[in-house]
Every structure is written in C-alpha cells, then in structure tokens.
C-alpha cells in the first residue's frame, strides 16, 4: 500500500468530486468514517442526499478511480446510499408528515413562465427517481391541470381527503380542480390563504421527496402569507431577462429572505429566441439579465431557457416537454436545472427533529 493512501489523503482528494451531470462540487459530503481501507482497496460510502440514475453512478465511479489511483488505490468499492432527507423549514412550522421537502416556485410578476418551469422541474426530478408532487397554489390562474393534462375533480378517501391524481410521474392537486373552468375565483387574501392551507393539508399526499408549489405571482399579501404559513425548505424564482421583470425578482428575493426561506436559485426564462427557419439567435427580452442579477444577489443561477414554440405546443397538449422530448436541448436544460435544485436542497440544514427517511443501498 502506498504511503500516500490513507484516510486523510483520500478525504482531501475527494474534495474534487463533482456531480456528473452539472459539474458542481459534491466531495464535501464525505466524512472520515465514510472511508475504509483494505490494503490498496478503498471502500467508500457515499450519501449524496439526492437521487442519481445509473449513468450518474457510472460517472461517479469513474471519478473515484481517476482521483484515487494516483494515491495508490488499485480498486474502489462504492456503497451508494440514495434517498432524500428532510430539511429545516421556517421557525414555528412543522413539515407535513408525508412530504420531506416543499419547494416554492415563485415569480415577481405574472407571465414569465413560472408554472411551465414548475411542472417541468417536477417531472425532471421524478425522472431521476424522486417521488414528486405538484401543488397549484395560483388561485387566480391555476394552470397545472392543463399543463399535466388532468381533468375532473380528485377522488375523496375515507378520511375526507382529496386523493391527488398522478400524471407524467408526479402527483398533482390544484385550485383548478375545485372551481369550474370558466368560473372566476373572487376571493380576498385571507380566504385564499385558508383555502391554500386546506388544499395542502387535506390532500392525501403519498410519501414525497419533494412537493413543488406553484405560487401566485407577485410579492403581495397572498404570496407573503403563503410564504409565512407553508413549511417551505427553499424557493426558486423565475424571471425573464428584461429590467422590469428583474426589478420584481429583487422584491421576491427580499420577501423570502424576510421570512427565512432560502432562495435556491434564479431561472431565466425566455432568455433567447432561436429562429426555427434560419437558426438566428435573438435576445428579444434582453441578454443575461437573470444571470447578472443572480451574481449581484449572490444567488445560484439555475439556467436560462430559450423561447421555443415546442414548449408552448407541448404545454397546451398537457405533456411537459421534459417528458415528451426527453433528449432535446430544452429538456437537457430542465434536467440540469432540476439537478441543481436537488443538490442545493441537499446542502441545506437537515431537520434533526423528525425521523430520517428510509434509504436504498446500491453496491
């Protein structure tokens, strides 16, 4: 065995480990007791805190070999413990029993693609192996039933709870199921918050790793009340690149900061339009505004999505593009966005007051 091959040197070398899909550092998740030596054979136990597919696991293993062979390792044995843990929510609130992590998808103003981002984020997380739900809290413009192609009202179980339907690998409940399609919801703020809490707690959610909440747009009384009363682990803010939308992002980030909800990152929607005939790229709404603002606010830039007719066409058909065109460039961006969110959630403070989830071990 090489003199270099010891637990301390291995731990130091593993700091270079990166997520195979998005390339962000994840080696800090290793601890000393995750490493065991048997001669020149290194046994590693790894808990990433989010789901990985087979391609990811193969990518990790290749990195382990590449990082540890220079130290004298002749073989690496990996014990990968997958699963998602419960993370801390706002003080005074308790997580929902069957939901490990609630993520709010918000926007400073309407019309920036928040709901489309929320549903594609949810489906992408499910594609990685997570159990995911979507809660459509946008009372004045519920769109998740259309985006997921779900009609009718949820069934009611023996406990008088709504049973969320499942579509494209995710469970969903929405204000849109509770009102007629052409009926306006003429509700004031307190009524909306009360209805939201009922929708959240009176839904028979199965065991979920993530519940994606499609928030009402803006930073007014309703959005603020929901941010204060729903046990959220983090938020994702959606914007477009133009200045008027970015101004509202600042307000949204400030709102979440005031209620102690971490902002997991900023998504820049409609970042560029690429002509389907000639391939010319045009920044209709401005260029890199979301990226610059993320840098200014010291927030993670989760990605920029192009303005593409296929997103609209698939949304109108009730099939999120990340599901219908999994290997397209837009789907790749959504998948990377979802992985960044999962990694950022895994880095949050754990909720030690509640039991840890069951885990699956791969060798």
From TrEMBL:
UniProt key word DNA damage: no
- InterPro entries the record matches: Mrp-like_CS (IPR000808), Mrp/NBP35_ATP-bd (IPR019591), NUBPL-like (IPR044304), P-loop_NTPase (IPR027417), YlxH/NBP35 (IPR033756)
Q: Which GO terms describe its biological process?
A: iron-sulfur cluster assembly
One Gene Ontology term of the molecular function aspect? metal ion binding
For the ligand (ATP), the binding residues are 108-115
For the keyword Iron, the answer is yes
Keyword vocabulary terms for this entry: ATP-binding, Hydrolase, Iron, Iron-sulfur, Metal-binding, Nucleotide-binding
Q: Assembly and partners? A: Homodimer.
| HAMAP family linked | Mrp_NBP35 (MF_02040)
Family membership, please give it. Answer: Belongs to the Mrp/NBP35 ATP-binding proteins family.
The UniProt function text for this chain reads: Binds and transfers iron-sulfur (Fe-S) clusters to target apoproteins. Can hydrolyze ATP.
This chain belongs to which protein, by name? Iron-sulfur cluster carrier protein
Q: What's the source species for this entry?
A: Pelistega indica
């Amino acid at each position: 065995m090489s003199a270099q091959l010891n637990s301390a040197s291995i731990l130091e070398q593993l700091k270079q480990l990166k997520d195979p899909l998005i390339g962000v550092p994840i080696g800090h998740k290793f601890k000393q007791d995750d490493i065991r030596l048997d001669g020149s054979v290194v046994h590693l136990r790894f808990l990433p805190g989010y789901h990985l597919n087979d391609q990811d696991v193969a990518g990790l293993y290749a990195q382990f070999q590449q990082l540890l062979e220079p130290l004298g390792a002749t073989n690496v044995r990996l014990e990968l413990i997958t699963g998602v843990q419960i993370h801390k929510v706002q003080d005074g609130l308790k997580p929902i029993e069957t939901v490990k992590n609630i993520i709010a998808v918000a926007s400073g103003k309407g019309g920036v693609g928040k709901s489309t981002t929320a549903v594609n984020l949810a489906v992408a997380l499910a594609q990685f192996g997570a159990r995911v739900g979507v809660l459509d809290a946008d009372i004045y413009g519920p769109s998740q039933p259309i985006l997921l192609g779900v009609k009718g009202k949820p069934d009611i179980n023996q406990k008088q709870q709504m049973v969320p339907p499942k579509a494209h690998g995710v469970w969903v409940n929405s204000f849109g199921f509770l009102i007629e399609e052409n009926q306006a919801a003429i509700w004031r703020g307190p009524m909306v918050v009360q209805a939201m809490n009922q929708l959240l707690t009176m839904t028979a959610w199965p065991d979920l790793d993530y519940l994606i909440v499609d928030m009402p747009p803006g930073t007014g009384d309703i959005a603020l009340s929901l941010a204060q009363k729903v046990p959220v682990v983090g938020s994702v803010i959606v914007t477009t690149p133009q200045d008027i939308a970015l101004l509202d992002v600042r307000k949204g980030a400030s709102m979440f900061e005031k209620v102690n909800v971490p902002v997991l990152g900023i998504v820049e929607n409609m970042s560029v339009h690429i002509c389907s005939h000639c391939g010319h790229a045009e920044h209709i709404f401005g260029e890199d505004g979301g990226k610059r603002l993320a840098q200014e606010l010291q927030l993670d830039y989760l990605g920029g999505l192009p303005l593409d007719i296929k997103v609209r066409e698939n949304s109108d058909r009730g099939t999120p593009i990340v599901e219908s065109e999994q290997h397209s460039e837009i789907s790749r961006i959504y998948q990377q966005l979802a992985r960044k969110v999962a990694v950022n959630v895994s880095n949050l403070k754990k909720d030690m007051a509640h039991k840890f989830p069951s885990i699956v071990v791969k060798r």
